[in-house]
DUF218 domain-containing protein
Amino acid sequence: MLFLAMPGLIWLAGLLWFGRDALSVTPHAVKCDGIVALTGGKDRIETSLDLLHRSYGQLLLISGVGSHATLAQLAGKSQAFLTPELSARITLGRRAVSTVGNGTETAEWAHSNHLHTLLVVTAGYHIRRAMMEIQRAAPDVVLHPYPVRPPALRRPLDKATVTLLVREYNKWLGAQLGLSRGTNLTPAA
């Protein structure tokens, strides 16, 4: 009977490790050639704009931006220091529609701008899978994680937060097993 329960116990132990890792976000900024922020959650873009403003990278890619979104809309509270000079160093990547697409979009941007090191900004629960997909698409680029703690992980654990962590853990496991292959980009206009 224990033999039959073993896969479930291993999955549960991995989920507990993953959840603890996602909740214990301790970002450490490293100066890099560029910064990439993956859309999809609060604080990622504002954090990346602050890092660009503080010169942790020379260029910034915001990957996975909606077709009609503007930099001013995305900047939120960070508009105060969004100068024309800083804005000129920001690329809005509009082709990625998934984390795999973020990896492809980031690789293309890094290579076209001759960037060798990137600071990757996304949620703590998303950082491991994002780093994996970007590294797969750009194995020659050195990546440094900069996880942010989104509002969902700042409150006590509830059903929605646990569901989010389970979903993200399963996606990360799928990526580990190579089930997330592809480019997932919208066609270039």
Q: What stands out?
A: Strands lie at 34-38, 59-63, 90-93, 117-123, 142-148.
